[in-house]
Amino acid sequence: MVAWNNAKSRMVGDFRDLNTYTVPDRYPIRKIQISLTQISQAVYITTMDALKGFHQNAVTPRARKHLRIIVHCGVYEYFGMPFGINNAPLHFQIMINEIFPEEPLEGWLIIYIDDIIFCSKTWEEHMYRLARVLTKFQSVSMQRFLKRCPFGFQELKALGHLVSGLSLGIDKNKVAAVFLKPMSQNKKEIQSFLVFEEYYRRHIVGTSLVRD
User: Fold this and answer.
1) What are the domain boundaries of the chain?
2) Does 14 score more than 80 pLDDT?
3) Is the C or the N end of the chain the one with fewer CB within 10 Å?
């Protein structure tokens, strides 16, 4: 058990050995910044977050034996996909894409793993699209975390950005976390910072000069 958000606990397994032997799957996922440009000129925006998202992706009986957790009171197997598996994010993305094959092509719905964002120019249109999204989730019995689903906002935080129909900015909390973080001391910490820098490089003036 590990501590999680709001002092809650989450059961996790150590799948590092399994990941060593796992062959990475390949599946195209659109870049977040490109996807967020779809929100341009939108008036109403809604984001949805899956409730324990990966666990809602069923695990085959054949795979369960590889996902066992051994504790003092016995051995347990996952019936839903656990966190920490190399291919878990990709397979969850595939599952959501299969639920919504048409909406992203229509240009009003963005899917990034377990986050869904949709937008519209009128309130009536937004309510229609909300009903359409919820109906599809209901058809596959997928639950959403309503406390993390802001509905119909004109500006909100999504995928590390502050988004609206007029602009695309940086979530200030993400920036503050970098300033509070101590200087990188090893290769892994440097790589982590470079990933952050690459993600927000469009918002950093003179990024290439700083790198040089």
Assistant:
1) 2-170, 181-212
2) yes
3) C
